[in-house]
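Re: that chain you flagged

S.,

Sorry for the slow reply, it's been a week of failed gels. I finally had a moment to sit down with the sequence you sent. For the record, here it is as I used it:
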Amino acid sequence: MRWQGGRRSGNIEDRRGMGAIGAGGIGIGGLVLAAIGYFVFGIDPSTTLGVVQQVTAPTEAVEGQRGTPDDLNARFVDVIETSTTDVWTPIFKAAGRTYDPPAAITLYSQATPTACGTGQSAMGPFYCPPDRKVYLDLAFWDELETRFGAGGEAARAYVIAHEIGHHVQNLTGEMEKAEAGGRRGAESGQVRLELQADCYAGVWAARAATVSGGEVALDPKDIEDGLRAASAVGDDTLQQQAQGRIVPDAFTHGTSAQRMRWFRAGVESGDPGDCNTFAADRL
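Prediction finished late last night. Pasting the C-alpha coordinates below so you have them in one place:
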Protein backbone atom coordinates (compact mmCIF):
# COMPACT_ATOMS: atom_id res chain seq x y z
CA MET A 1 0.00 0.00 0.00
CA ARG A 2 1.29 3.47 -0.92
CA TRP A 3 1.08 6.09 1.83
CA GLN A 4 4.56 7.25 2.89
CA GLY A 5 4.39 10.47 0.88
CA GLY A 6 0.83 11.25 1.87
CA ARG A 7 -0.23 14.56 3.34
CA ARG A 8 -0.51 14.84 7.12
CA SER A 9 -2.94 17.18 8.85
CA GLY A 10 -1.80 16.53 12.40
CA ASN A 11 -5.33 15.75 13.60
CA ILE A 12 -3.86 13.32 16.13
CA GLU A 13 -4.23 13.48 19.89
CA ASP A 14 -1.48 11.42 21.49
CA ARG A 15 -2.27 10.12 24.97
CA ARG A 16 0.12 7.19 24.81
CA GLY A 17 2.06 6.77 28.01
CA MET A 18 -0.55 8.67 30.00
CA GLY A 19 -2.11 5.43 31.25
CA ALA A 20 -5.67 5.61 32.56
CA ILE A 21 -5.44 9.23 33.77
CA GLY A 22 -8.90 10.44 34.63
CA ALA A 23 -10.43 7.04 33.92
CA GLY A 24 -12.78 5.31 36.27
CA GLY A 25 -16.23 6.77 35.75
CA ILE A 26 -17.58 3.71 34.00
CA GLY A 27 -16.17 1.11 36.38
CA ILE A 28 -14.63 -2.28 35.82
CA GLY A 29 -18.03 -3.83 35.17
CA GLY A 30 -18.56 -1.59 32.17
CA LEU A 31 -15.14 -2.41 30.80
CA VAL A 32 -15.81 -6.12 31.08
CA LEU A 33 -19.18 -5.78 29.37
CA ALA A 34 -17.69 -3.77 26.52
CA ALA A 35 -14.77 -6.18 26.07
CA ILE A 36 -17.08 -9.21 26.06
CA GLY A 37 -19.44 -7.49 23.67
CA TYR A 38 -16.66 -6.72 21.22
CA PHE A 39 -14.78 -10.01 21.18
CA VAL A 40 -17.72 -12.41 21.64
CA PHE A 41 -20.53 -10.70 19.78
CA GLY A 42 -18.79 -7.98 17.75
CA ILE A 43 -20.78 -5.25 19.49
CA ASP A 44 -19.45 -1.75 18.85
CA PRO A 45 -17.87 -0.67 22.17
CA SER A 46 -19.45 2.76 21.84
CA THR A 47 -22.87 1.07 21.96
CA THR A 48 -22.08 -0.82 25.17
CA LEU A 49 -20.34 2.15 26.75
CA GLY A 50 -23.25 4.41 25.88
CA VAL A 51 -25.65 2.20 27.82
CA VAL A 52 -23.33 1.83 30.80
CA GLN A 53 -22.61 5.56 30.78
CA GLN A 54 -26.28 6.24 31.55
CA VAL A 55 -25.85 4.73 35.01
CA THR A 56 -22.32 5.90 35.84
CA ALA A 57 -20.60 9.18 36.54
CA PRO A 58 -18.86 10.89 33.61
CA THR A 59 -15.14 10.43 33.29
CA GLU A 60 -12.74 13.29 33.86
CA ALA A 61 -11.67 15.07 30.70
CA VAL A 62 -8.06 14.70 29.64
CA GLU A 63 -6.17 16.15 26.70
CA GLY A 64 -3.12 14.60 25.12
CA GLN A 65 -0.49 16.19 22.93
CA ARG A 66 -1.89 17.23 19.58
CA GLY A 67 0.08 17.31 16.36
CA THR A 68 2.05 14.95 14.11
CA PRO A 69 3.82 12.20 16.08
CA ASP A 70 6.97 10.93 14.39
CA ASP A 71 6.80 7.17 14.98
CA LEU A 72 5.87 5.03 11.98
CA ASN A 73 2.49 3.77 13.20
CA ALA A 74 1.30 7.22 14.26
CA ARG A 75 2.42 8.70 10.94
CA PHE A 76 0.39 6.02 9.17
CA VAL A 77 -2.72 6.86 11.17
CA ASP A 78 -2.21 10.57 10.47
CA VAL A 79 -1.87 10.04 6.72
CA ILE A 80 -4.93 7.77 6.50
CA GLU A 81 -7.10 10.11 8.58
CA THR A 82 -5.99 13.04 6.40
CA SER A 83 -6.76 11.00 3.29
CA THR A 84 -10.30 10.30 4.54
CA THR A 85 -10.80 14.04 5.00
CA ASP A 86 -9.57 14.65 1.45
CA VAL A 87 -12.06 12.06 0.19
CA TRP A 88 -15.12 13.13 2.17
CA THR A 89 -14.70 16.90 1.80
CA PRO A 90 -15.59 17.05 -1.94
CA ILE A 91 -18.34 14.44 -1.47
CA PHE A 92 -20.03 16.64 1.13
CA LYS A 93 -19.42 19.75 -0.97
CA ALA A 94 -21.14 18.14 -3.96
CA ALA A 95 -24.14 17.54 -1.72
CA GLY A 96 -24.17 21.17 -0.61
CA ARG A 97 -22.76 20.42 2.83
CA THR A 98 -19.51 20.98 4.71
CA TYR A 99 -17.46 18.08 5.97
CA ASP A 100 -16.06 18.58 9.45
CA PRO A 101 -13.28 16.09 10.23
CA PRO A 102 -13.46 14.19 13.51
CA ALA A 103 -12.24 16.15 16.51
CA ALA A 104 -9.21 13.86 16.55
CA ILE A 105 -7.96 10.34 16.29
CA THR A 106 -6.88 9.74 19.85
CA LEU A 107 -4.01 7.32 20.35
CA TYR A 108 -3.83 5.85 23.82
CA SER A 109 -2.37 2.98 25.83
CA GLN A 110 -4.44 0.54 27.86
CA ALA A 111 -7.26 2.84 28.99
CA THR A 112 -8.44 6.41 28.58
CA PRO A 113 -11.49 8.54 29.45
CA THR A 114 -13.90 9.39 26.65
CA ALA A 115 -17.27 11.09 26.39
CA CYS A 116 -18.71 7.58 26.00
CA GLY A 117 -17.12 6.29 29.21
CA THR A 118 -13.74 4.73 29.80
CA GLY A 119 -12.13 3.29 26.69
CA GLN A 120 -9.95 0.20 27.04
CA SER A 121 -7.56 -1.35 24.57
CA ALA A 122 -9.37 -4.72 24.71
CA MET A 123 -12.32 -3.07 22.99
CA GLY A 124 -10.47 -2.40 19.78
CA PRO A 125 -10.85 0.89 17.86
CA PHE A 126 -14.13 2.76 18.28
CA TYR A 127 -15.83 6.04 17.44
CA CYS A 128 -17.46 8.06 20.22
CA PRO A 129 -20.26 10.26 18.83
CA PRO A 130 -20.53 12.74 21.75
CA ASP A 131 -16.92 13.92 21.49
CA ARG A 132 -16.58 13.03 17.77
CA LYS A 133 -13.26 11.26 18.26
CA VAL A 134 -11.89 7.94 17.06
CA TYR A 135 -10.04 6.05 19.80
CA LEU A 136 -7.22 3.67 18.93
CA ASP A 137 -4.68 1.73 20.96
CA LEU A 138 -2.00 0.86 18.41
CA ALA A 139 -1.52 -2.51 20.13
CA PHE A 140 -4.67 -3.46 18.20
CA TRP A 141 -2.59 -3.83 15.06
CA ASP A 142 -0.96 -6.92 16.60
CA GLU A 143 -4.37 -8.21 17.69
CA LEU A 144 -5.73 -7.68 14.21
CA GLU A 145 -3.02 -9.89 12.77
CA THR A 146 -2.63 -12.56 15.45
CA ARG A 147 -6.24 -12.97 16.60
CA PHE A 148 -8.12 -12.11 13.43
CA GLY A 149 -5.56 -13.11 10.80
CA ALA A 150 -5.80 -9.78 9.02
CA GLY A 151 -2.34 -8.23 8.92
CA GLY A 152 -0.90 -5.55 6.69
CA GLU A 153 -1.29 -1.84 6.22
CA ALA A 154 -4.38 -2.09 4.05
CA ALA A 155 -6.23 -4.01 6.78
CA ARG A 156 -5.26 -1.30 9.25
CA ALA A 157 -6.39 1.42 6.87
CA TYR A 158 -9.74 -0.36 6.45
CA VAL A 159 -10.27 -0.24 10.22
CA ILE A 160 -9.53 3.50 10.35
CA ALA A 161 -11.73 4.24 7.33
CA HIS A 162 -14.56 2.21 8.89
CA GLU A 163 -14.44 4.26 12.09
CA ILE A 164 -14.32 7.47 10.04
CA GLY A 165 -17.39 6.08 8.30
CA HIS A 166 -19.17 6.24 11.65
CA HIS A 167 -18.16 9.89 11.92
CA VAL A 168 -19.72 10.50 8.51
CA GLN A 169 -22.90 8.81 9.76
CA ASN A 170 -22.87 11.04 12.83
CA LEU A 171 -22.68 14.13 10.61
CA THR A 172 -25.43 12.99 8.23
CA GLY A 173 -27.84 11.74 10.88
CA GLU A 174 -27.65 8.14 9.77
CA MET A 175 -26.86 7.10 13.33
CA GLU A 176 -30.33 8.26 14.26
CA LYS A 177 -31.74 5.91 11.62
CA ALA A 178 -29.99 3.02 13.32
CA GLU A 179 -31.43 3.97 16.70
CA ALA A 180 -34.90 4.11 15.16
CA GLY A 181 -34.43 0.79 13.35
CA GLY A 182 -36.50 -1.10 15.87
CA ARG A 183 -35.44 -4.55 14.73
CA ARG A 184 -33.07 -6.96 16.40
CA GLY A 185 -30.37 -9.25 15.13
CA ALA A 186 -29.34 -9.74 11.53
CA GLU A 187 -31.66 -7.03 10.12
CA SER A 188 -31.28 -4.48 12.90
CA GLY A 189 -30.49 -0.83 12.46
CA GLN A 190 -27.17 -1.43 14.19
CA VAL A 191 -26.16 -4.05 11.63
CA ARG A 192 -27.17 -1.75 8.78
CA LEU A 193 -25.13 1.04 10.36
CA GLU A 194 -22.01 -1.12 10.55
CA LEU A 195 -22.38 -2.42 7.02
CA GLN A 196 -22.79 1.10 5.74
CA ALA A 197 -19.55 2.07 7.51
CA ASP A 198 -17.89 -0.85 5.71
CA CYS A 199 -19.21 0.50 2.41
CA TYR A 200 -17.95 3.98 3.28
CA ALA A 201 -14.53 2.46 3.95
CA GLY A 202 -14.71 1.06 0.43
CA VAL A 203 -15.61 4.50 -0.96
CA TRP A 204 -12.48 5.88 0.67
CA ALA A 205 -10.35 3.06 -0.80
CA ALA A 206 -11.76 3.77 -4.26
CA ARG A 207 -11.12 7.51 -4.17
CA ALA A 208 -7.93 7.82 -2.12
CA ALA A 209 -5.51 7.74 -5.05
CA THR A 210 -7.47 10.34 -7.04
CA VAL A 211 -7.67 12.96 -4.30
CA SER A 212 -4.05 12.47 -3.21
CA GLY A 213 -2.51 12.46 -6.68
CA GLY A 214 -1.46 8.88 -6.09
CA GLU A 215 0.39 9.55 -2.83
CA VAL A 216 -2.10 7.32 -1.01
CA ALA A 217 -3.27 4.37 -3.05
CA LEU A 218 -4.43 0.77 -2.71
CA ASP A 219 -3.70 -1.86 -5.34
CA PRO A 220 -5.84 -5.00 -5.92
CA LYS A 221 -3.89 -6.96 -3.31
CA ASP A 222 -4.52 -4.21 -0.78
CA ILE A 223 -8.24 -4.44 -1.50
CA GLU A 224 -8.07 -8.17 -0.84
CA ASP A 225 -6.37 -7.45 2.49
CA GLY A 226 -9.20 -5.07 3.32
CA LEU A 227 -11.75 -7.72 2.40
CA ARG A 228 -9.92 -10.21 4.60
CA ALA A 229 -10.13 -7.80 7.51
CA ALA A 230 -13.85 -7.28 6.92
CA SER A 231 -14.40 -11.02 6.83
CA ALA A 232 -12.37 -11.63 10.00
CA VAL A 233 -14.64 -9.44 12.11
CA GLY A 234 -18.00 -10.74 10.83
CA ASP A 235 -20.48 -11.64 13.56
CA ASP A 236 -20.78 -15.25 12.47
CA THR A 237 -17.00 -15.72 12.40
CA LEU A 238 -16.49 -14.10 15.80
CA GLN A 239 -19.31 -16.07 17.39
CA GLN A 240 -18.13 -19.36 15.93
CA GLN A 241 -14.63 -18.74 17.27
CA ALA A 242 -15.80 -17.64 20.70
CA GLN A 243 -18.66 -20.02 21.48
CA GLY A 244 -18.75 -22.63 18.75
CA ARG A 245 -22.17 -21.59 17.46
CA ILE A 246 -23.82 -18.75 15.58
CA VAL A 247 -26.66 -16.68 17.05
CA PRO A 248 -28.16 -14.37 14.39
CA ASP A 249 -30.34 -12.58 16.95
CA ALA A 250 -27.13 -11.32 18.58
CA PHE A 251 -25.67 -9.92 15.35
CA THR A 252 -24.56 -6.29 15.50
CA HIS A 253 -22.13 -5.90 12.57
CA GLY A 254 -23.26 -8.40 9.94
CA THR A 255 -21.82 -11.67 8.72
CA SER A 256 -18.41 -11.99 7.15
CA ALA A 257 -20.01 -12.32 3.72
CA GLN A 258 -22.11 -9.20 4.26
CA ARG A 259 -19.19 -7.13 5.49
CA MET A 260 -17.13 -8.12 2.48
CA ARG A 261 -20.06 -7.48 0.13
CA TRP A 262 -20.61 -3.92 1.34
CA PHE A 263 -16.94 -3.03 1.48
CA ARG A 264 -16.61 -4.30 -2.10
CA ALA A 265 -19.70 -2.30 -3.13
CA GLY A 266 -18.01 0.89 -1.96
CA VAL A 267 -14.76 0.01 -3.69
CA GLU A 268 -16.41 -0.81 -7.00
CA SER A 269 -18.62 2.27 -7.24
CA GLY A 270 -16.79 4.87 -5.16
CA ASP A 271 -20.24 6.36 -4.62
CA PRO A 272 -21.64 6.73 -1.09
CA GLY A 273 -25.09 6.77 -2.66
CA ASP A 274 -24.63 3.04 -3.22
CA CYS A 275 -24.12 2.53 0.52
CA ASN A 276 -27.74 2.98 1.61
CA THR A 277 -27.99 -0.18 3.67
CA PHE A 278 -31.13 1.16 5.37
CA ALA A 279 -33.05 0.90 2.10
CA ALA A 280 -31.52 -2.42 1.00
CA ASP A 281 -33.84 -5.44 0.84
CA ARG A 282 -30.83 -7.76 0.93
CA LEU A 283 -27.89 -7.17 3.21
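What I noticed first: Residues 23-43, 50-59 have pLDDT under 50 and may be disordered.

Talk soon,
D.
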